């Protein structure tokens, strides 16, 4: 399965480049045409997915439409410096569902299972600054800003003086 981002001008030649979500890189329109014409291929055209859409559901379970939006928005695990693809991550309710947190893309964050457990069962924690931008706090008080471009260390705790 490939998720291709193209515009109406990609296949007409005015802008002959699209983007492949899985490789996170450009793809030529000629390559897209070749993929679409492969014998035995199944082509499913889905509507445009707006990663900014935030329509909650009433359950804890996460519907596929929300999962896909979050994966397309965040691309990878949002734990500091983790590069695990979002498609291989759990989705964490930033505000716990049992504490009133909605099941909607703006409250869901992809975390690798190990990082999900660290957030849930240790003193690692984060705040959602806005969807796709997270401020993490480590057990020793260090702060990390995780954004679509990577992780920045914001502060580290001062060493204790003897």
Secondary-structure topology with pairs:
Elements: E1 4-5, E2 17-20, E3 25-28, H1 29-36, H2 64-74, E4 90-93, E5 108-111, H3 113-121, E6 125-130, E7 133-137, E8 143-147, E9 150-155
Antiparallel strand pairs: 1-2, 2-3, 4-5, 6-7, 7-8, 8-9
Query: Can you tell me the residue ranges where pLDDT is under 50 for at least 5 consecutive residues?
Result: none
Number of helices: 3
Mean pLDDT: 87
Q: Tell me roughly what share of residues is in helical segments.
A: 10-25%
Count the strands?
Answer: 9
Total domains: 2
Question: Which structural class do you get from the secondary structure elements?
Answer: alpha+beta
What distance separates the N and C termini?
58 Å
State the major sheet: 4 strands, antiparallel
Helix and strand element order: EEEHHEEHEEEE
| Strand line-up across the major sheet | 6-7-8-9
Shape: elongated
- Gyration radius, rounded: 19 Å
């Amino acid at each position: 399965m490939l998720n291709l981002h193209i515009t109406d001008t990609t296949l007409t030649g005015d802008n002959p480049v699209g983007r492949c979500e899985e490789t996170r890189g450009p793809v030529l329109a000629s390559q897209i045409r070749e993929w679409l014409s492969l014998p035995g291929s199944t082509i499913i055209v889905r509507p445009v997915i707006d990663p900014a859409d935030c329509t909650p559901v009433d359950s804890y379970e996460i519907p596929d439409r929300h999962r896909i939006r979050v994966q397309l928005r965040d691309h990878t695990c949002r734990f500091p410096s983790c590069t695990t693809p979002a498609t291989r991550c759990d989705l964490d309710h930033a505000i716990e569902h049992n504490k009133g947190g909605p099941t909607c893309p703006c409250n869901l964050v992809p975390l690798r299972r190990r990082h999900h457990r660290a957030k849930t069962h240790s003193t690692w924690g984060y705040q959602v600054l806005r969807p796709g931008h997270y401020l993490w706090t480590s057990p020793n008080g260090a702060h990390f800003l995780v954004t679509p471009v990577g992780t920045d260390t914001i502060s580290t705790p001062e060493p204790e003086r003897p």
